[in-house]
Amino acid sequence: MPSFTTSPASAAKLLALLSCLVVPISARTTGKFSFLTYNVAGLPAFLSGNGVPGDKGTNANSIGRLFAEYDYDIIHVQEDFAYHAYIYATDDHPYRTPTTGTVPWGSGLNSLLNFPYTTLNRVKWDKCDLNEADCLTPKGFTMMRTQIASGVEVDLYNLHADAGGNSGDFAARSAGIDQILVYINANSAGRAVIIAGDTNDRYTNSGRSITKLRDAGFKDSWVERIKGGVYPTEGAAANPCPVPAPNNACEIVDKILYRSGTTVKLDTTAFDYEGDIFLQADGNRLSDHNPVRVEFTYSA
User: Fold this and answer.
1) What are the Cα distances from residue 112, in Å, to 17, 84, 198, 285?
2) In whole angstroms, what is the distance from residue 109 CA to residue 142 CA?
3) What does pLDDT average to over the chain?
4) pLDDT band at residue 222 under the 50/70/90 scheme
5) What's 155's DSSP letter?
6) Which positions fall inside the Inositol polyphosphate-related phosphatase domain (predicted)?
7) What are the residue boundaries of the structural domains of the chain, listed by start?
């Protein structure tokens, strides 16, 4: 049988070649991305001013410009109704969902991304309460499948829950959480998932329903990064945030929750309310909600 020998120089070249082959594979399977959710207060001005001063079209232009300037990788917006075109006119994200229109036809749910998506489904809530005019628009959630990197897919859910504080609102929000969980089980089983949007709920609320997401295996990024993993107690004294929020310790109804999948692991590294960024030129707020930013890492 012939024997083969390798010189030290040849061995060094072989190791160098192997290292070149390994590094790109590693680079493709780990990384990070930024995520923002923002209720943009886009109801027609004649219906609601949302308590925000200034012209709504001008404010929407400013929101789109800030989306482009800070280049968040994934953005979910809610109440994107009458001023949708103003936001898209000044934004430059390469992938953006088409609008479903203003009230009463549109859901107000859209997404802007630096990543391509292959699926977009829009689902209306099965139950709504007449209080707060929730039944006048097709409120619900969207589901989209996006490719973050080669071999790395994440299912994104954007929601806007029933508003208000009466028993009918509590029931509608609870039914909505049940509905989205059934949908996730049927369409995103075993997959990495991010749920974000306006839940119209806080953990301190009596009659809260968002803890069902925790019980289903989803982590709340605010609880994880700011509250040390400790969920506020139902019925405890609320600590709601003004707009812009002075810090991250107060709680808002806008949430970003997530879970890992069988082939993609998600983690968070940072959480921040971006209300001090999304301001008008005179310092006034652009919406009656604080934007929420979370920094994610992924590994596959």
Assistant:
1) 40, 12, 16, 21
2) 7
3) 91
4) very high
5) E
6) 67-215
7) 31-299
Distance CA(243)–CA(51), nearest Å, equals 11
Helix, strand, or coil (residue 268): strand
Per-residue pLDDT tens digits for 238-291: 899 999 999 999 999 999 999 999 999 999 999 999 999 999 999 999 999 999
CA proximity to 77, closest of 138, 159, 156, 136: 159
Structure tokens at 46: 């004649």
Q: How far is CA 35 from the centre of its chain?
A: 6
Read off the pLDDT of residues 4-27 as tens digits, 9 standing for 90 and up: 344 545 555 545 544 444 444 444
CA 181 – CA 279 distance, rounded (Å): 35
Q: Is 26 helix (H, G, I), strand (E, B) or coil?
A: helix
Half-sphere exposure of 124 (CA within 13 A, CB side): 13
* In the chain, alpha helices (H): 8-29, 56-70, 84-90, 167-187, 211-215, 221-225
Nearest to 163 by CA among 200, 135, 138, 190: 200
- What is the fold of 31-299? Deoxyribonuclease I; Chain A (3.60.10)
Closest CA to 91 of 38, 144, 51, 156: 38
